[in-house]
Amino acid sequence: MIRNFFFIILTIFFLTPNLFGEEKAVLKKQEWDFQGIFGRYDKPTLQRGLQIYQEVCSACHGMKRLRFRELKDLGFTQEQIKQYAETFEITDGPNDLGEMFTRPGEPSDAFVSPYKNKEEAKAAFGGAYPLDLSLLTKSMKNGPDYIYSLLTGYEDEPPKGFELPEGLYYNPYHDGNVIGMPPPLYDEAIEYIDGTNASLHQLSYDIVNFLNWTAEPELEKRKSLGIKVILFLLVLTALLYVTMKEIWSRIKK
Amino acid sequence: MAKKFKNKTLAWLDYRLPIFSVLKEALVDHPTPRNLNYWWNFGSLAGITLIIMIVSGLMLSMHYVAHVDLAFDSVEHIMRDVNYGWLIRYIHSVGASMFFLIVYIHISRGLYYGSYKSPREVLWWLGIIIFLLMIASAFLGYTLPWGQMSFWGATVITNLFSAIPLVGDSIVTWLWGGFSVDNPTLNRFYSLHFLIPFVIVGIVFLHIVALHKFGSNNPTGIDITLKEESIPFHPYYTIKDLFGLGVFFIIFGIFVFFLPNSLGHPDNYIPADPLVTPEHIVPEWYFLPFYAILRAIPFKLLGVLAMLGSILILFALPWLDTCKVRSCRFRPIYKQFYWIFIVNFFILGWVGSKVPEGHYLIISRICTGYYFIHFLIILPLLGFFEKTLPVPANIFKEHNKKK
Ligand code: HEM
User: What is the span of the domain harbouring residue A219?
Assistant: First the structure.
């Protein structure tokens, strides 16, 4: 009796995390390729995501933990990566004369952030800070769904009676329903190289996939190793169980 | 003694340094009650998890840099550049959660079967000391990646010392090595985080010495008197522990490979920023019940004392529980209160993750009160009023009855 009581109470607590209702806009949950035990990244999706980052987000947001060489996971060849890296200008040095100089990027370099430091970035946006996107999906609760909802959740007209402060945008998914980032994506915001129709949904979906990859580049390796390890452990544990039964049957009850 | 080993070299060495006979006595011959159930697997699991933590921690420490400007980046370097670095780090961070899960179950087992009662009080104390050291180690370790929760968690917890009258603020400054949580704090936290697990190893050793003095308790809670009631540790319990280990590794593996961040707080992937306070500062799940007790009480000093007291009270448990019968099997009333206590503890954990306002505050106060009432009123009184069931003379009697 008491044990059932115990489990009932536990289920109530785990199934209703917000027992006393803390309201927030409900996230638009998406089916992500990378979810689940067999989750994988889709290379064309990631490539489109890179294009969006490159053409839109990189104007304001950095991606400092990503190295060009890592782009081989998206299906690019060494040669393509080298050429791509060379389009970036990297500040290096000091040289023999003690001076800093710029040189074309190499595959081992990381992406260059648009602002020199946090202060400069903040100054450009009146105090709002366009954070580095490298780890973004991991650093937020339900990261992928949240970012998708945020990017597709801008509303042109705030609800009646809502005072929209100057220079901010209405977005019910962000804290306080306002955000300092102008809507970065909209239908046909960019023209995809591979010709995919660039709807707002498609753009948001692709960039979130890309961001999840930059946050968890090890995901595919991790999951495929995990499947092998768990299968091995299941067999091993089954054998141990049989052995245990055999050994214990030696003692008379 | 020397005859114990057939191998000549081993016999020669053991005659001069008897570690092999000690090991043989502990892991092979040690007479163990034959009726132990699976709840007795968690002691060996805890020991193995401790070793896993030390080995993975040692590997992390080869790449980790304890400096406020570099710590976060060095952890990301481990995640991205070090070969299988993500595996090492996830084993360590998930491992900490698993360690607490196991030890909580291990302690609950002790509470249910009365393992803390005479003559095992010192064994029980050593266990609580291990638990306290684990708390310290996990808290210190959590600051190392220097994310937002690392920094703010460290700030909140070290600030608790300021509740001490008169000298509180000086103590906090001394702990920090400065006037805020900063580089000196990170450095000392790292060296202590490195040290404490080895101290735990030492205490675990004493824990086992104390255990072997009187042997394991068992589900009936009665003393083992007949020879036939025991079986040698090997092969019976070695294989059972190995099977348990297999099951544990499967669960551990599911978290490491498929849900590595589900037990942690996402804010810790944001580098520490002393100028930005996170919306809610919450500790890791395994501290939540104690965090709830801390925040249930409006006065800081009292809150700190209640939180400390909630663990320290366990030291007095062997005397607070006035009943001579050990196992819950023969204590029908205590059994009910045991489960209520466990539910109460879960509720504390759940409110610990909420902002202490409104309903949550009321719940946390009721549960905190009940936590202490359980130990200070219910347990002492039960010994006098509870009618325990007849206790069998030996474990076989009980066995037959059940069949
Ligand atoms: C009682 C055993 C131990 C416990 C409970 C423990 C717990 C923790 C925890 C909770 C973290 C933060 C994990 C994260 O979120 O990243 C951590 C990090 C760390 N620990 Fe331990 N640890 C233990 C033993 C050790 C040992 C023995 C060493 C070194 C020899 C070590 C070295 C480290 C290092 C270098 C980090 C920072 C890297 C990181 O955050 O991933 N740990 N530990």
Answer: 28-45+130-234
